[in-house]
């Protein structure tokens, strides 16, 4: 058996030389000379370079499943086809029936443990090898970045698998020799550990980093706000911890009012490569197009149809679900579109491409990109089974990429940043934390934050009172196809699993039958009833209904490889005493 497990990750990080510099620095490439650990960490710049790797490569195998869990599993993306995920399919995620043999889950688990091990390695190596020319401020900034990424890895681990082991120190775990006997920590212990880690990061990180785009103190505050909001429901029934909600409000307030960041009013610009670094992006994976794989963003190849760029794309048959279209108030059935007050939300077209859409920021050298003639003349078949394709995570053609970043793209390789935590999220966290356990609120601060996203940016009518359902829907639309929606179901399941399950059961997760013939008509007309005799698509009611058996669906099965290497993952979690944990 191939031992791709926690131990291998720990050993790799502790023995690796610093010369793996092909993609560490997303801003300024360090020298290509090889160093041993003892020769590195001589300057603040080298400490920072050691943290650069954390922004990309260790996350690569996680991003490949990031949207399968966050958006396919949650009902935002239709991704049918293969019965298993062995060849990259996502049907088990669509059906909420992901087995322990899932290759995607295995890769995601390995990646998250690798991130944790890399973060631990950066911290331990700086503590051990940093030279006298380094400064405390420089050392702490690099270690603080590692702590935020470490917290992020555990935040994903606990929301995907629930109770998981805590590995605080690589060297200590290896020295103790218990790497394949680690007990799971209770979920509340994991959340406390994440908070402990972020509290230390806040102390170490600068308010304004030397290089734009790096994690700073407000990145840590933002993640703390999200962690507290999520944690607030755990262990409760029907309502949430007011203390945790207050902390979520406190930290979100710091980000909104003290960081100097401003919400980006042009929603589309957030996802353009020329704006990889912006006020909106609090924490991001920062990719480049190198000769070395795993430092690059592969999502354009995954979600664009063949012919969208000069390389091989294969994503034409997967796209935003009918349920997500319903949430935006749009439909793939052209004759049902009303030309009045239709498609009001400015975020819809930025999120998904549909019949008749034109994009001036794709294919700029050709006058823009038009979805309908692209499928008719270039692809030849309207592949999407839902009438929509993903628009986020796409750069365009090679000329677009060169114009934005100065380098060409390659197959499965773009330099578009992936925003893991955005300012818009924090505004909605702030509004929800103020609402708390109340049925509704007209609090001025909550409305101001909510309407900054809902009205000022999305262009929808301003709200004078908001409920939990209002915020739920706004989060759904604001963060759609950004790997986040499933975790809203997870945190809802903590204190109201019946509501979480009912929301999943009510979704329109199926495809349409007959869209290709329908779209190939000579003149499909918006706002006019379908003429008799012309092809008429239908929602695929013949497909099996979603089965949501119980609240256990909100916890993924541990991969078989993890279970074989550490059978204690099958045992009940234990209490971890965090009093002795320090950085």
What is the count of DSSP helices, taking H or I runs of 4+ residues?
A: 22
CATH architecture of the largest domain: Alpha Horseshoe
Low-confidence stretches: 10-22, 24-33
State the end-to-end CA separation.
35 Å
Radius of gyration: 24 Å
CATH class of the largest domain: Mainly Alpha
The best one-word shape is: globular
| Quaternary organization | single chain
Approximately how much beta-strand content do the residues carry?
A: 5-15%
Biggest sheet character? 2 strands, antiparallel
Number of E strands: 12
Q: Strand order of the main beta sheet, please?
A: 1-3
At CATH level 3, the topology of the largest domain is Serine Threonine Protein Phosphatase 5, Tetratricopeptide repeat
How many domains comprise the coordinates?
2
Please give a structural write-up.
There is one protein chain. Helix content is 43%, strand content 5%. With 583 residues, it is mainly alpha-helical. It has 2 domains: 6-290 and 552-580, Serine Threonine Protein Phosphatase 5, Tetratricopeptide repeat, CATH 1.25.40.390; 299-414, no CATH class. The strands form 6 sheets. A two-stranded antiparallel sheet has the order 1-3. Helix 1 runs parallel beside helix 5 (103-129) and helix 2 (44-52) packs parallel to helix 6. The chain is globular and about 75 Å long.
